[in-house]
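Cross-posting from the modeling subforum.

Setting up a comparison between two proteins and wanted a second pair of eyes on the formatting. Protein 1 (sequence, then structure tokens):
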Amino acid sequence: MLPAIPLKRFGTPEEMGHAAAFLASKEAGFITGQTIIIDGGQSLPESSLV
């Protein structure tokens, strides 16, 4: 699975927590109905990696 991640590393629990903390903050108050993908770029189409 690691070779498929453009950042060439797994995410840390702290990185997931930072995203969750942001979404729970007042700074994210205008964000609604979105899916935030935290995957180091793994879900990017191959053409965007060139």
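Protein 2 (same layout):
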Amino acid sequence: MLGLYVALVGATALERLAELVVSARNARWSFARGGVESGRGHFPAMVALHTGLLVACVAEAVLADRPFLPWLGWPMLVLVLASQGLRWWCIAALGPRWNTRVIVVPDLPLVTRGPYRWLRHPNYVAVVVEGFALPLVHTCWVTAVAFTVLNAVLLLRFRIPAEERALTLATGGAASGAR
């Protein structure tokens, strides 16, 4: 099962590369329409944390000889797949406005379709779920705890407020709905 787990983590890494391609294209679209970037200071930490998650998943599984426990691994795999589905639903709902960076085009209305109809920041729900579920597919509990804590303490507490400020500025204070 370790080989399949490494393949899952590898597929997740490829998915991240696909996100970066979409993000770069969308950044060009946003900047061409007057988009303004905010919160650039936390972006390198976000990249390091997400890269570290993938590396740590494999390292812990191999070095700590973590077993695959079906009663835990299969439900966590379902959560990983669900989080990917939610992430790509967010990307589809935001269209060219989705980005891995905080880039907001002034005077565009807030998106209220897709998961943004119900949640303010659904993409971060996907990140949180994937952050604990991907490691736990192969009982990498140290990675699951470390990523969850670091994501909450070092990233989300800065990233979400940065997005909120950018949206509020871009909408003239009307950023009460979803992105």
